[in-house]
């Protein structure tokens, strides 16, 4: 069975983590003292939060014994108070193994914890601070209650820069003996939007089809429509031809296997490139946000997308 590349090429030490140099320098200072405070790693998906926690544990505890003093849990799987009073408390109360004075609990997607679970976690953090440190990984630190935030050092991870993603992808392509075209690399950047994990996974899916990675292959395997097709759809609607725009919309949904949320995100990105007054762009962005909310809340996707196209048509009429 083919390896999952995201694990196969996951950096093992802090120096190998890309795109977060300032954070790595601060974490390496903790490695020197063999001690860490409670931490919150906040930022978008695919920016190195989990990898940083694993690498930090490896360097503090050593490659041979780090797993014995490091416990990883995903809060999105078990988000209630029982997980805090059960697995987390049981691990936190036991003494560290070996010469180290602390152990680490890494709680991934901690912003999924319920308020009651966070309150229980606060008490656990207070009680076992002498022998246990907590690292909370979150997309939004604001979803963590203030008493926990005040006890933690917050590290804010940024989306990975384009050049850093390109460099890492080229390294993987070389090791896997892949040929990636210049347009394929640019589309990979467009698809990932600063998410290195998504870039690696998209590359692996494309490589399962062909050793030569082109833009066409990536479009087919990543449920992403060509930006020019989305722009043509919008321009058709603004031009006043609702039926033609509606047909183009359903062609995109079928051809690329897109969901309503996928196409909404691409329409949103394309609005900024339109040659229309900013006032009209603001109106379209507002309507796009409203439609996206309705789709997420469970409204009929096709009806809502047609409603958005209708708004584009009405905007086009005001421009004329």
Describe the structure.
With 320 residues, the protein is an alpha/beta fold. The protein has three domains: 152 residues, P-loop containing nucleotide triphosphate hydrolases (Rossmann fold, 3-Layer(aba) Sandwich), CATH 3.40.50.300; 60 residues, Helicase, Ruva Protein, domain 3 (Orthogonal Bundle), CATH 1.10.8.60; 93 residues, Up-down Bundle (Zinc Finger, Delta Prime, domain 3), CATH 1.20.272. It is 56% helix and 9% strand. The chain is built from 15 helices and seven strands. The strands form two sheets. The protein has a five-stranded parallel sheet with strand order 2-3-4-1-5, with helices on both faces. The radius of gyration is 23 Å and the shape is globular.
Give a topology summary.
Layout (H helix, E strand, L loop, with lengths): L4 H4 L12 H13 L5 E4 L6 H13 L8 E5 L6 H12 L10 E6 L6 H13 L4 E7 L7 H4 L3 E4 L5 H14 L3 E2 L1 H11 L3 H12 L4 E2 L1 H7 L5 H12 L3 H15 L3 H12 L6 H19 L4 H19 L1
Parallel strand pairs: 1-4, 1-5, 2-3, 3-4, 6-7
Helix pairs in contact: 2-3, 4-5, 8-9, 8-10, 11-12, 11-13, 11-15, 12-15, 13-14, 14-15
What's the main sheet like?
5 strands, parallel
Given helix and strand content, the structural type is alpha/beta
Count of all domains = 3
CATH superfamily of the largest domain: P-loop containing nucleotide triphosphate hydrolases
Strand order of the largest sheet: 2-3-4-1-5
End-to-end C-alpha gap: 58 Å
| Overall residue-averaged pLDDT value | 88
Number of E strands: 7
Characterize this entry briefly.
This protein is α/β, with parallel strands linked by helices. 56% of the residues lie in helices and 9% in strands. The strands form two sheets. Strands 2-3-4-1-5 form a five-stranded parallel β-sheet, sandwiched between helices.
């Amino acid at each position: 069975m083919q390896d999952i590349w995201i694990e196969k090429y996951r950096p093992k030490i802090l120096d190998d983590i890309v795109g977060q140099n300032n954070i790595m320098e601060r974490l390496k200072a903790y490695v020197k003292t063999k001690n860490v405070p409670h931490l919150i790693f906040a930022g978008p998906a695919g920016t190195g939060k989990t990898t940083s926690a694993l690498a930090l544990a490896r360097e503090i505890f050593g490659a041979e014994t780090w797993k014995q003093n490091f416990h990883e849990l995903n809060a999105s799987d078990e988000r209630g108070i029982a997980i805090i009073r059960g697995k987390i408390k049981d691990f936190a109360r036991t003494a560290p193994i070996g010469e180290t004075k602390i152990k680490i609990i890494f709680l991934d997607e901690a912003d999924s914890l319920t308020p009651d679970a966070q309150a229980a976690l606060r008490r656990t953090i207070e009680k076992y601070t002498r022998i246990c440190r907590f690292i909370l990984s979150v997309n939004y630190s604001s979803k963590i209650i203030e008493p926990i935030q005040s006890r933690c050092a917050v590290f804010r991870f940024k989306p990975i820069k384009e050049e850093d993603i390109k460099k890492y992808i080229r390294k993987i392509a070389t090791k896997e003996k892949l040929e990636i075209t210049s347009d394929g690399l640019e589309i990979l950047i467009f698809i990932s939007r600063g998410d290195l994990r998504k870039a690696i996974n998209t590359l692996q899916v494309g490589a399962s089809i062909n050793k030569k990675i082109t833009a066409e292959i990536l479009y087919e395997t990543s449920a992403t429509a060509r930006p020019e097709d989305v722009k043509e759809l919008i321009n058709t609607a603004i031009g006043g031809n609702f039926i033609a725009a509606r047909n183009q919309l359903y062609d995109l949904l079928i051809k690329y296997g897109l969901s309503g949320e996928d196409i909404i995100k691409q329409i949103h990105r394309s609005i900024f490139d339109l040659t229309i007054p900013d006032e009209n762009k603001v109106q379209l962005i507002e309507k796009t946000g409203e439609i996206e909310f309705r789709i997420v809340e469970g409204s009929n996707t096709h009806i809502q997308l047609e409603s958005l196209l209708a708004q584009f048509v009405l905007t086009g009429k005001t421009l004329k």
